[in-house]
Amino acid sequence: DASGSYRNVRIRYVRINKNGSGYTAGKFFDSIEGRFGFPGMGDPAGSDITVTEGSTVVLGRQNPASDDYRGNTYIWKQIDTGGPKVILSADDIKNPSFIAPMVDTAPITLVFELTRINEDRFGVSRSRIHIQVIENNIKGFDKDVFTFFNRQAVNNMGIRCTTGDLVSYKVSNPDYKFSKGKITDMENRPKNLDYGMMNFSIKTTPKGTGIIEIHLPKPAPENYKWFKYSESTGWIEFMRGSVAGSSTDGAQFSSDRKIVSIHITDNGPFDDDDKPGIITDPSGLGLPGGWHESQGSGGGGCFINCLFN
User: Fold this and answer.
1) What tens digit of pLDDT does each residue of 123-134 get?
2) Is the residue at 208 inside a domain?
3) How far, CA to CA in Å, does 189 sit from each of 28, 71, 173, 269, 294?
4) Quick check: is 58 in a domain?
5) Lowest-pLDDT range, 7-21, 71-85, 105-119, 236-250?
């Protein structure tokens, strides 16, 4: 409409049939929600959702080909509703991410507005998404630690940035045969990865250093190390002070070995994201000594038993 906001419209379609005598109109066969008369064109900001505190949230509609017209420009901003401000991975991309803030008892609602500019198709449009954040009921961590639950190991964990801003994280299982992230490289691989591969992204200043803490549910055994994997380096022990090619990057344990602090330089040799100002790292806690094919059948610390959801 004139304000640039989307209006809901409902369209009915007629099936056109062709036979030996020509074209005939069939019955109305469908009724589809659309935008501006285009079937399936939903609100580009996405649908309102409820998420748990400490989880990764991705804004915008996910994978709709109809939204991907050439020349689209996206501008996101958080609307001030009196709640906490969050850090977006970027404010000028289609699907930025952030971490849902920790809440007290009462839920909070975050509001984001998307301005989408496309001169060739729709001009300028604005839409909003409301995200309600509720408790995850995980206790025992500092208030500035994002917490999450490991369903497979039945353990709570925490994660926070002490330098930079955490904008996304997930825990993956590179052994899972249906996973797109399956890792087939076994050279120097640890015997097990008890808590999975932590995949996180940090927003920082270009060429700056990001520091992230992983809060474990129990102290890491003395013989365990922090391992990193990338296509360029393969599997390496990523312990600070012993990493080839860097005197500052790497992981170090707290005195009680319950917290792992990971240091990575933006666009350095151990940053898996080549965009300036974004650090990405897949790494995890493991036992040195090599991986054996027999571990793939399960049990005994097999990695597939440590899958996080």
Assistant:
1) 788 899 999 999
2) yes
3) 60, 44, 14, 19, 14
4) yes
5) 7-21
